[in-house]
Design brief:
The chain is an all-alpha fold and about 170 residues long. It has helices at about 5-25, 30-65, 70-85, 95-125, 130-145, 155-160. It has one domain (about 5-160). The chain has six helices and no strands. It is elongated. Bound molecules: fe (ii) ion (2 copies).
């Protein structure tokens, strides 16, 4: 699995979670219940963002020599995190539900922009075998049952990025 296939698969799973939450949300009437849902989503999205920064944004930073093209996407992550954290300050269940719906809508748009702009850029900048190596490193880091800081993964990423990028 390439890194872009892995990250798109994460988008698909997250969107399915959003769909489930949107269906269930009308029956979650208590403020505490909606906050608990928001905290769960915050954890899921943070895990995705961490993986994406490590295995897609940073490799592109390297390839693009910090030309700032990714700043919009880093900003989206910060904005989404802030929206979800803000739900902790909601005063009513209705307010919290609206804030959660807004955060999920923002995440859906962000995913679409990444799939339109960031992932194709990644696929143009790196060779097929490099994309597979990044996917394998992502799998070792996030999808296999082992400690979250796996020393062997770092050299793998380093060796991929040490190879010349395309273009
Ligand atoms: Fe993202
Ligand atoms: Fe993403």
């Amino acid at each position: 699995m390439t890194i872009t296939e892995a990250l798109i698969a994460e988008h698909i799973v997250l969107i399915r979670v959003f769909n489930q939450i949107e269906c269930a949300l009308p029956s979650w009437t208590t403020l505490a219940g909606v906050r608990a849902l928001a905290e769960m989503l915050e954890g899921l999205l943070r895990g995705h963002e961490d993986a994406e920064v490590e295995f897609a944004y940073r490799p592109l930073d390297h390839a693009l020599a910090e030309d700032g093209r990714l700043e919009r996407f880093y900003h989206d992550h910060r904005d989404l995190d802030a929206k979800l954290r803000g739900i902790r300050n909601a005063k009513t269940g209705v307010e919290a539900r609206l804030m959660l719906m807004g955060a999920m809508a923002g995440a859906r748009e962000h995913f679409q922009r990444e799939e339109r702009e960031v992932f194709p850029l990644l696929e143009r900048r790196f060779r097929a075998e490099q994309l597979l190596e990044l996917g394998q490193a992502w799998r070792c880091r996030y999808a296999l049952p082992q400690p979250i800081t796996t020393p062997s993964v770092r050299p793998a990423i380093g060796s991929v990025l040490a190879q010349p990028a395309l273009e």
